[in-house]
Write a structure and sequence with these properties.
Radius of gyration: 22 Å
Number of strands: 12
Helix content: 40-55%
Mean pLDDT: 92
Low-confidence stretches: 1-22, 378-382
Structural class: alpha/beta
Distance between the termini: 51 Å
Largest sheet: 8 strands, parallel, barrel
Number of helices: 15
Strand order of the largest sheet: 1-2-3-4-5-6-9-10
Shape: globular
Length: 382
Protein backbone atom coordinates (compact mmCIF):
# COMPACT_ATOMS: atom_id res chain seq x y z
CA UNK A 1 0.00 0.00 0.00
CA UNK A 2 2.85 2.38 0.88
CA UNK A 3 4.40 1.66 -2.51
CA UNK A 4 1.08 2.45 -4.21
CA UNK A 5 0.79 5.75 -2.33
CA UNK A 6 4.38 6.57 -3.25
CA UNK A 7 3.73 5.89 -6.91
CA UNK A 8 0.52 7.91 -6.89
CA UNK A 9 2.24 10.78 -5.08
CA UNK A 10 5.09 10.77 -7.56
CA UNK A 11 2.66 10.79 -10.50
CA UNK A 12 0.72 13.66 -8.96
CA UNK A 13 3.90 15.69 -8.52
CA UNK A 14 4.90 15.04 -12.12
CA UNK A 15 1.48 16.12 -13.42
CA UNK A 16 1.51 19.26 -11.29
CA UNK A 17 5.01 20.13 -12.45
CA UNK A 18 4.08 19.66 -16.11
CA UNK A 19 1.01 21.84 -15.74
CA UNK A 20 2.77 24.64 -13.89
CA UNK A 21 5.93 25.03 -15.96
CA UNK A 22 4.96 24.48 -19.59
CA UNK A 23 8.49 25.52 -20.39
CA UNK A 24 9.16 23.92 -23.73
CA UNK A 25 7.72 22.18 -26.73
CA UNK A 26 8.87 18.75 -27.83
CA UNK A 27 11.83 20.32 -29.64
CA UNK A 28 13.00 22.10 -26.49
CA UNK A 29 11.78 25.57 -27.47
CA UNK A 30 9.78 27.62 -24.97
CA UNK A 31 6.31 28.85 -25.79
CA UNK A 32 7.52 32.44 -25.49
CA UNK A 33 5.83 33.70 -28.64
CA UNK A 34 5.85 37.41 -29.44
CA UNK A 35 4.65 39.57 -32.32
CA UNK A 36 3.89 43.19 -31.44
CA UNK A 37 4.58 45.20 -28.32
CA UNK A 38 5.83 48.44 -26.85
CA UNK A 39 8.46 49.65 -24.39
CA UNK A 40 7.35 50.78 -20.93
CA UNK A 41 10.17 53.29 -20.98
CA UNK A 42 11.08 56.15 -18.63
CA UNK A 43 9.54 54.40 -15.66
CA UNK A 44 12.04 51.97 -14.13
CA UNK A 45 14.72 53.35 -16.44
CA UNK A 46 15.92 56.82 -17.47
CA UNK A 47 13.67 58.52 -14.94
CA UNK A 48 14.14 60.51 -11.75
CA UNK A 49 10.64 59.64 -10.55
CA UNK A 50 10.51 57.99 -7.14
CA UNK A 51 7.87 57.37 -4.52
CA UNK A 52 4.25 58.09 -5.37
CA UNK A 53 5.02 59.56 -8.81
CA UNK A 54 6.76 56.37 -9.88
CA UNK A 55 4.09 54.14 -8.34
CA UNK A 56 1.35 56.01 -10.18
CA UNK A 57 3.19 56.22 -13.50
CA UNK A 58 2.23 52.72 -14.71
CA UNK A 59 -0.87 51.08 -13.26
CA UNK A 60 -3.15 48.18 -14.04
CA UNK A 61 -5.24 50.15 -16.52
CA UNK A 62 -2.13 50.57 -18.70
CA UNK A 63 -1.74 46.81 -19.06
CA UNK A 64 -5.46 46.41 -19.63
CA UNK A 65 -5.30 49.08 -22.35
CA UNK A 66 -2.40 47.40 -24.13
CA UNK A 67 -4.20 44.07 -24.08
CA UNK A 68 -7.39 45.60 -25.47
CA UNK A 69 -5.47 47.37 -28.24
CA UNK A 70 -4.01 44.06 -29.38
CA UNK A 71 -0.43 44.16 -28.13
CA UNK A 72 0.82 40.78 -26.97
CA UNK A 73 3.93 41.74 -25.01
CA UNK A 74 5.93 44.56 -23.45
CA UNK A 75 9.61 45.31 -23.02
CA UNK A 76 10.38 46.70 -19.57
CA UNK A 77 13.67 48.65 -19.40
CA UNK A 78 15.21 48.75 -15.92
CA UNK A 79 18.30 50.57 -14.62
CA UNK A 80 20.79 49.46 -12.01
CA UNK A 81 20.52 52.76 -10.12
CA UNK A 82 16.81 52.20 -9.57
CA UNK A 83 17.23 48.68 -8.19
CA UNK A 84 20.50 48.87 -6.27
CA UNK A 85 22.22 51.66 -4.36
CA UNK A 86 25.95 52.32 -4.77
CA UNK A 87 26.76 49.75 -2.07
CA UNK A 88 24.82 47.08 -3.94
CA UNK A 89 21.84 47.01 -1.59
CA UNK A 90 18.49 46.32 -3.20
CA UNK A 91 15.98 49.20 -3.28
CA UNK A 92 12.66 47.48 -2.53
CA UNK A 93 10.21 49.83 -4.24
CA UNK A 94 11.58 49.26 -7.74
CA UNK A 95 11.62 45.50 -7.21
CA UNK A 96 8.00 45.62 -6.08
CA UNK A 97 7.03 47.66 -9.12
CA UNK A 98 8.74 45.20 -11.46
CA UNK A 99 6.98 42.18 -9.98
CA UNK A 100 3.72 44.18 -10.01
CA UNK A 101 4.26 44.80 -13.74
CA UNK A 102 4.95 41.14 -14.45
CA UNK A 103 1.91 40.07 -12.45
CA UNK A 104 -0.24 42.50 -14.42
CA UNK A 105 1.24 41.18 -17.66
CA UNK A 106 0.14 37.70 -16.64
CA UNK A 107 -3.32 38.89 -15.71
CA UNK A 108 -3.75 40.71 -19.02
CA UNK A 109 -2.23 38.09 -21.33
CA UNK A 110 0.94 40.01 -22.10
CA UNK A 111 4.36 38.44 -22.21
CA UNK A 112 7.29 40.53 -20.95
CA UNK A 113 10.97 41.07 -21.67
CA UNK A 114 12.90 42.42 -18.69
CA UNK A 115 15.64 44.57 -20.23
CA UNK A 116 18.64 45.66 -18.13
CA UNK A 117 18.90 49.00 -19.87
CA UNK A 118 21.64 50.98 -18.11
CA UNK A 119 24.21 49.77 -15.58
CA UNK A 120 26.81 51.77 -13.70
CA UNK A 121 29.65 50.31 -15.77
CA UNK A 122 27.97 50.88 -19.12
CA UNK A 123 25.71 53.59 -20.53
CA UNK A 124 24.96 53.32 -24.24
CA UNK A 125 25.09 57.07 -24.89
CA UNK A 126 28.22 57.81 -22.87
CA UNK A 127 30.38 58.13 -25.99
CA UNK A 128 28.05 60.67 -27.57
CA UNK A 129 28.02 62.68 -24.35
CA UNK A 130 31.81 62.79 -24.14
CA UNK A 131 32.03 60.42 -21.21
CA UNK A 132 33.00 57.18 -22.86
CA UNK A 133 35.75 56.55 -20.32
CA UNK A 134 33.04 55.91 -17.71
CA UNK A 135 32.20 52.65 -19.50
CA UNK A 136 34.41 50.06 -17.85
CA UNK A 137 32.37 46.98 -18.71
CA UNK A 138 34.51 45.72 -21.55
CA UNK A 139 37.86 46.35 -19.86
CA UNK A 140 37.15 45.26 -16.29
CA UNK A 141 36.67 41.69 -15.09
CA UNK A 142 35.06 43.08 -11.94
CA UNK A 143 32.49 45.05 -13.93
CA UNK A 144 31.62 41.94 -15.91
CA UNK A 145 31.20 39.88 -12.76
CA UNK A 146 29.11 42.67 -11.28
CA UNK A 147 26.79 42.42 -14.30
CA UNK A 148 26.47 38.68 -13.77
CA UNK A 149 25.77 39.24 -10.07
CA UNK A 150 22.97 41.67 -10.96
CA UNK A 151 21.37 38.94 -13.04
CA UNK A 152 21.84 36.36 -10.29
CA UNK A 153 19.78 38.61 -8.04
CA UNK A 154 17.19 39.29 -10.73
CA UNK A 155 16.93 35.57 -11.40
CA UNK A 156 16.40 34.84 -7.72
CA UNK A 157 13.31 37.06 -7.80
CA UNK A 158 12.02 36.36 -11.32
CA UNK A 159 12.70 32.65 -11.79
CA UNK A 160 9.24 31.79 -10.51
CA UNK A 161 7.63 33.33 -13.58
CA UNK A 162 6.96 30.89 -16.38
CA UNK A 163 9.51 30.59 -19.16
CA UNK A 164 6.55 31.00 -21.48
CA UNK A 165 5.73 34.46 -20.15
CA UNK A 166 8.94 36.26 -19.11
CA UNK A 167 12.27 36.62 -20.96
CA UNK A 168 15.54 38.31 -20.00
CA UNK A 169 17.48 40.81 -22.10
CA UNK A 170 20.69 40.92 -20.15
CA UNK A 171 21.99 44.20 -21.56
CA UNK A 172 20.76 46.98 -23.81
CA UNK A 173 22.74 48.52 -26.68
CA UNK A 174 26.31 47.40 -25.99
CA UNK A 175 29.00 49.77 -27.23
CA UNK A 176 32.26 47.83 -27.30
CA UNK A 177 35.24 49.05 -29.32
CA UNK A 178 35.75 45.56 -30.72
CA UNK A 179 32.92 43.19 -31.62
CA UNK A 180 34.80 40.30 -30.05
CA UNK A 181 34.68 42.05 -26.66
CA UNK A 182 30.91 41.86 -26.78
CA UNK A 183 30.93 38.29 -28.08
CA UNK A 184 33.08 37.17 -25.14
CA UNK A 185 30.79 38.89 -22.67
CA UNK A 186 27.74 37.32 -24.31
CA UNK A 187 29.29 33.87 -23.86
CA UNK A 188 30.17 34.61 -20.24
CA UNK A 189 26.75 35.94 -19.20
CA UNK A 190 24.94 33.27 -21.20
CA UNK A 191 26.88 30.52 -19.41
CA UNK A 192 26.19 32.05 -16.00
CA UNK A 193 22.46 32.42 -16.63
CA UNK A 194 22.11 28.97 -18.14
CA UNK A 195 23.56 27.46 -14.95
CA UNK A 196 20.71 29.11 -13.04
CA UNK A 197 17.89 28.93 -15.60
CA UNK A 198 18.55 26.37 -18.34
CA UNK A 199 15.49 27.22 -20.44
CA UNK A 200 14.66 30.88 -19.86
CA UNK A 201 14.36 32.78 -23.13
CA UNK A 202 17.28 35.18 -23.46
CA UNK A 203 17.25 38.21 -25.76
CA UNK A 204 20.66 39.00 -27.23
CA UNK A 205 21.47 42.06 -29.33
CA UNK A 206 24.39 43.04 -31.51
CA UNK A 207 27.28 45.38 -30.73
CA UNK A 208 27.30 49.15 -31.35
CA UNK A 209 23.88 50.19 -30.15
CA UNK A 210 22.24 46.93 -31.23
CA UNK A 211 22.76 47.99 -34.81
CA UNK A 212 21.33 45.96 -37.66
CA UNK A 213 24.60 46.44 -39.52
CA UNK A 214 26.65 44.70 -36.79
CA UNK A 215 24.42 41.66 -36.40
CA UNK A 216 26.68 39.74 -38.80
CA UNK A 217 29.54 40.01 -36.28
CA UNK A 218 27.51 38.55 -33.40
CA UNK A 219 28.53 35.10 -32.17
CA UNK A 220 25.42 33.39 -30.91
CA UNK A 221 25.80 30.58 -28.34
CA UNK A 222 25.44 27.38 -30.32
CA UNK A 223 22.67 24.88 -29.75
CA UNK A 224 20.48 27.12 -27.60
CA UNK A 225 17.01 27.34 -29.11
CA UNK A 226 15.64 29.65 -26.41
CA UNK A 227 17.36 32.78 -27.70
CA UNK A 228 15.80 35.73 -29.48
CA UNK A 229 18.06 37.95 -31.59
CA UNK A 230 17.50 41.67 -31.22
CA UNK A 231 18.34 44.80 -33.17
CA UNK A 232 17.22 48.44 -33.02
CA UNK A 233 16.32 50.67 -35.94
CA UNK A 234 15.69 54.41 -36.14
CA UNK A 235 16.86 55.09 -39.67
CA UNK A 236 16.77 57.57 -41.25
CA UNK A 237 17.60 59.53 -38.11
CA UNK A 238 17.00 62.86 -39.84
CA UNK A 239 13.34 61.80 -40.03
CA UNK A 240 12.79 59.81 -36.82
CA UNK A 241 14.78 62.23 -34.63
CA UNK A 242 13.84 65.52 -36.30
CA UNK A 243 14.30 68.26 -33.71
CA UNK A 244 15.77 65.92 -31.09
CA UNK A 245 18.00 68.08 -28.90
CA UNK A 246 20.29 65.22 -27.76
CA UNK A 247 21.60 64.24 -31.19
CA UNK A 248 23.49 66.26 -33.85
CA UNK A 249 20.94 65.34 -36.52
CA UNK A 250 18.33 67.23 -34.51
CA UNK A 251 19.98 70.50 -35.53
CA UNK A 252 18.60 70.18 -39.06
CA UNK A 253 15.62 72.54 -39.45
CA UNK A 254 14.74 72.15 -43.13
CA UNK A 255 12.04 70.01 -44.66
CA UNK A 256 12.27 66.21 -44.68
CA UNK A 257 10.82 64.13 -47.51
CA UNK A 258 9.73 60.49 -47.24
CA UNK A 259 9.69 58.36 -49.27
CA UNK A 260 12.39 59.61 -51.62
CA UNK A 261 15.53 61.68 -51.18
CA UNK A 262 15.22 63.07 -47.67
CA UNK A 263 16.79 66.53 -48.11
CA UNK A 264 16.29 68.68 -51.19
CA UNK A 265 19.12 70.65 -52.78
CA UNK A 266 17.52 73.91 -51.61
CA UNK A 267 17.24 72.76 -47.97
CA UNK A 268 20.77 71.41 -48.09
CA UNK A 269 22.17 74.72 -49.29
CA UNK A 270 20.26 76.59 -46.59
CA UNK A 271 21.83 74.47 -43.82
CA UNK A 272 24.87 75.33 -41.71
CA UNK A 273 28.25 73.84 -42.60
CA UNK A 274 28.12 71.41 -39.66
CA UNK A 275 24.68 70.17 -40.68
CA UNK A 276 25.78 69.89 -44.32
CA UNK A 277 28.65 67.69 -43.19
CA UNK A 278 26.22 65.44 -41.33
CA UNK A 279 23.91 65.26 -44.35
CA UNK A 280 26.84 64.39 -46.61
CA UNK A 281 28.10 61.71 -44.23
CA UNK A 282 24.74 59.97 -44.14
CA UNK A 283 23.81 60.58 -47.81
CA UNK A 284 20.53 62.17 -46.75
CA UNK A 285 20.62 64.34 -49.89
CA UNK A 286 21.40 61.54 -52.37
CA UNK A 287 20.07 58.22 -51.04
CA UNK A 288 16.47 57.26 -51.77
CA UNK A 289 14.75 56.16 -48.55
CA UNK A 290 11.73 53.91 -48.88
CA UNK A 291 10.54 50.43 -48.02
CA UNK A 292 13.20 48.90 -50.26
CA UNK A 293 15.95 50.69 -48.30
CA UNK A 294 14.52 49.39 -45.02
CA UNK A 295 14.34 45.88 -46.45
CA UNK A 296 17.95 46.14 -47.61
CA UNK A 297 19.09 47.38 -44.19
CA UNK A 298 17.45 44.40 -42.47
CA UNK A 299 19.11 41.87 -44.77
CA UNK A 300 22.07 40.92 -42.55
CA UNK A 301 19.97 40.62 -39.40
CA UNK A 302 17.47 38.41 -41.22
CA UNK A 303 20.30 36.23 -42.52
CA UNK A 304 21.77 35.73 -39.04
CA UNK A 305 18.38 34.79 -37.57
CA UNK A 306 17.88 32.32 -40.42
CA UNK A 307 21.35 30.86 -39.91
CA UNK A 308 20.64 30.06 -36.26
CA UNK A 309 16.93 29.38 -36.82
CA UNK A 310 15.99 31.93 -34.14
CA UNK A 311 13.27 34.56 -33.76
CA UNK A 312 14.31 38.05 -34.87
CA UNK A 313 13.11 41.00 -32.81
CA UNK A 314 13.33 44.78 -33.33
CA UNK A 315 13.38 45.96 -29.73
CA UNK A 316 13.30 49.69 -30.45
CA UNK A 317 11.93 51.73 -33.33
CA UNK A 318 9.78 54.81 -33.49
CA UNK A 319 9.42 58.49 -34.32
CA UNK A 320 10.02 61.49 -32.08
CA UNK A 321 6.83 63.33 -31.16
CA UNK A 322 7.55 66.65 -33.00
CA UNK A 323 8.07 64.87 -36.35
CA UNK A 324 5.47 65.60 -39.03
CA UNK A 325 2.80 62.99 -38.40
CA UNK A 326 2.12 62.12 -42.04
CA UNK A 327 5.81 61.33 -42.54
CA UNK A 328 5.79 59.34 -39.30
CA UNK A 329 2.83 57.24 -40.43
CA UNK A 330 4.31 56.57 -43.88
CA UNK A 331 7.58 55.36 -42.35
CA UNK A 332 5.74 53.31 -39.72
CA UNK A 333 3.63 51.56 -42.37
CA UNK A 334 6.75 50.63 -44.32
CA UNK A 335 8.42 49.30 -41.17
CA UNK A 336 5.39 47.19 -40.34
CA UNK A 337 5.28 45.76 -43.85
CA UNK A 338 8.89 44.59 -43.62
CA UNK A 339 8.38 43.22 -40.10
CA UNK A 340 5.42 41.23 -41.34
CA UNK A 341 7.20 40.03 -44.48
CA UNK A 342 10.08 38.52 -42.49
CA UNK A 343 8.25 37.54 -39.29
CA UNK A 344 10.12 40.08 -37.16
CA UNK A 345 8.64 40.75 -33.73
CA UNK A 346 8.76 44.35 -32.48
CA UNK A 347 8.33 46.75 -29.60
CA UNK A 348 7.84 50.42 -30.40
CA UNK A 349 9.80 53.06 -28.56
CA UNK A 350 7.59 53.75 -26.73
CA UNK A 351 4.30 53.73 -24.82
CA UNK A 352 3.96 57.10 -23.11
CA UNK A 353 7.17 59.15 -23.40
CA UNK A 354 8.32 61.47 -26.19
CA UNK A 355 8.13 58.77 -28.87
CA UNK A 356 4.88 57.36 -27.50
CA UNK A 357 1.18 57.38 -28.22
CA UNK A 358 -0.32 57.66 -24.71
CA UNK A 359 -0.44 60.75 -22.47
CA UNK A 360 -0.39 59.75 -18.81
CA UNK A 361 -1.09 63.27 -17.57
CA UNK A 362 -4.23 63.66 -19.68
CA UNK A 363 -5.15 59.97 -19.41
CA UNK A 364 -5.83 59.97 -23.12
CA UNK A 365 -4.20 59.20 -26.46
CA UNK A 366 -1.81 61.79 -27.77
CA UNK A 367 -1.54 60.00 -31.11
CA UNK A 368 -4.45 57.64 -31.69
CA UNK A 369 -3.84 57.53 -35.48
CA UNK A 370 -0.41 56.05 -34.74
CA UNK A 371 -2.04 53.28 -32.71
CA UNK A 372 -4.45 52.63 -35.56
CA UNK A 373 -1.53 52.30 -37.97
CA UNK A 374 0.33 49.97 -35.60
CA UNK A 375 -2.62 47.66 -35.07
CA UNK A 376 -4.12 47.62 -38.56
CA UNK A 377 -1.17 46.31 -40.55
CA UNK A 378 -1.46 43.28 -42.80
CA UNK A 379 -0.98 40.00 -41.00
CA UNK A 380 -1.22 41.44 -37.50
CA UNK A 381 -4.34 39.60 -36.39
CA UNK A 382 -4.28 38.25 -32.87
Amino acid sequence: MKQLFSVLAFMAIMVMTACSTKTATTDGVNNFRIKRGTNLSHWLSQSEERGEARRLHIQEDDFERLEQLGFDFVRIPIDEVQFWDEEGNQLPEAWNLLTFALDQCGKHHLRAIVDLHIIRSHYFNAVNEGNGSANTLFTSEKSQQDLINLWYQLSDVLKGYSNDSVAYEFMNEPVAEEHEQWNKLVAKVHKALREREPQRTLVIGSNRWQGYETMKYLKVPEGDKNIILSFHYYNPMILTHYGAWWTPVGKYTGKVNYPGVLVSKEDYEASSDSVKALIDENHFNTQVWDINKIREDFKDAIAVAKKYNLQLFCGEWGVYEPVDRELAYKWTKDMLSVFDEFNIAWTTWCYDADFGFWDQQKNDYKDKPLVDVLMSGKGLEK
